[in-house]
């Protein structure tokens, strides 16, 4: 009897292993090839967008980077072309529908049809919700929800006519779990997740595969550009330490690889960092317990007051602690990813 049980376990393990190998082979054979494809990255001049651009350039993609800052765009273009990439940069405010339509038309007429769209542009507001105003919510929803709508609708007709395409919407774990002191950010990312999943369901019949990314914290160097409210120095110091800690955050390069691999394989969703994955699982199992835990976290965060409803940028909120060894990873990412 024991021998029979051992044999059954052996064949079960062998079957599982064969299925895993078969799945890996199929994924490898059916993976989307970025070589020669034109990839548009919004917010591509710095941070995560630039990290992704570097990785896509190594895969032979032709890059279109759009952002609002011409100097940042030119810096990114010079770096990428210096390493052999084919790059077009476009100044564009993606919260302006007309600017988006003009930019897409120009790219498709003067450069190349867009094969892959990566909606990456973002904004962060940190602080107690009681210090937020309608302005913060509007800014967040405009860039995290309306901007991807504008870009998607602009590239959709050409993708349909060519028989396919890929879209990566970079939301956040904050689009699965609403995080204290990041309510405008989380609410707008929830909207993006809903949009992205709906697009996937409807566009698959055109061979346009949409991937929703919900990454956890990653070291892009972007906190210095965040808008901070309330006790902005304490708020920013905590945020930057969390952003830099290897317990709660991972290198942007690692997160970018995971998201681009999901895009390459046409996966529906991808969540990066163990911290975010555990949080997502807990929220699915018990939303009430998750929000109760977050309420306890909120109780130890800085309260209302300080500069109140006024706001300061991260780089205006530095403290000795936020510039100490505790944030070394984030500081290095700032310099590396065109954030300074």
TrEMBL record:
Domain Ketoreductase: 37-176
CDD domains: SDR_c (cd05233)
Keyword tags: Oxidoreductase
Entry keyword annotation includes Oxidoreductase: yes
PROSITE patterns: ADH_SHORT
Bias (Basic and acidic residues) ranges: 329-340
Gene3D superfamilies: NAD(P)-binding Rossmann-like Domain
GO CC aspect terms: membrane
Highest taxon of source: Bacteria
Stretches the record annotates as Disordered: 307-340
Single Gene Ontology MF annotation: oxidoreductase activity
Ranges of Polar residues composition bias in the record: 319-328
Entry's family note: Belongs to the short-chain dehydrogenases/reductases (SDR) family.
Name assigned to this protein: Short-subunit dehydrogenase
């Amino acid at each position: 009897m024991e021998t029979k049980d051992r044999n059954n376990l052996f064949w079960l393990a062998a079957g599982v292993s064969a299925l895993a190998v078969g799945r890996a082979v199929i994924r490898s054979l059916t993976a989307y090839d970025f070589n020669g494809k034109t990839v548009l990255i919004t917010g591509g001049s710095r941070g995560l967008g630039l990290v992704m651009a570097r990785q896509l350039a190594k895969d032979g993609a032709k890059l279109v980077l759009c952002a609002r800052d011409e100097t940042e765009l030119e810096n990114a273009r010079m770096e990428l072309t210096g390493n052999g990439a084919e790059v077009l940069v476009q100044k564009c405010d993606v919260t302006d529908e007309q600017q988006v339509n003009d930019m897409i038309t120009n790219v498709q007429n003067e450069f190349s049809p867009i094969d892959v769209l990566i909606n990456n542009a973002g904004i962060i507001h940190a602080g107690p919700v009681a210090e937020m105003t309608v302005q913060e919510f509007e800014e967040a929803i405009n860039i995290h929800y309306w901007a991807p709508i504008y870009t998607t609708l602009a590239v959709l007709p050409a993708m349909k006519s060519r028989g396919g395409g890929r879209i990566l919407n970079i939301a956040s774990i904050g689009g699965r779990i609403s995080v204290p002191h990041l309510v405008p950010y989380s609410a707008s990312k929830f909207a993006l997740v809903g949009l992205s999943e709906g697009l996937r369901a409807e566009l698959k019949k055109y061979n346009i595969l949409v991937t929703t990314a919900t990454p956890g914290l990653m070291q892009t160097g972007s906190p210095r550009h965040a808008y901070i409210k309330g006790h902005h120095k304490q708020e920013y110091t905590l945020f930057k330490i969390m952003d830099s800690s290897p317990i709660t955050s991972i290198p942007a390069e690692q997160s970018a690889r995971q998201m681009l691999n999901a895009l390459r394989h046409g996966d529906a969703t991808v969540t990066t960092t163990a911290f975010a994955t555990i949080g997502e699982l807990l929220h699915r199992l018990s939303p009430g317990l998750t929000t109760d835990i977050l309420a306890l976290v909120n109780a130890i965060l800085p309260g209302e007051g300080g500069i109140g409803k006024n706001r300061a940028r991260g780089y205006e909120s530095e403290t000795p602690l936020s510039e100490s060894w505790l944030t070394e990873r984030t500081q290095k990412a700032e310099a590396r990813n065109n954030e300074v």
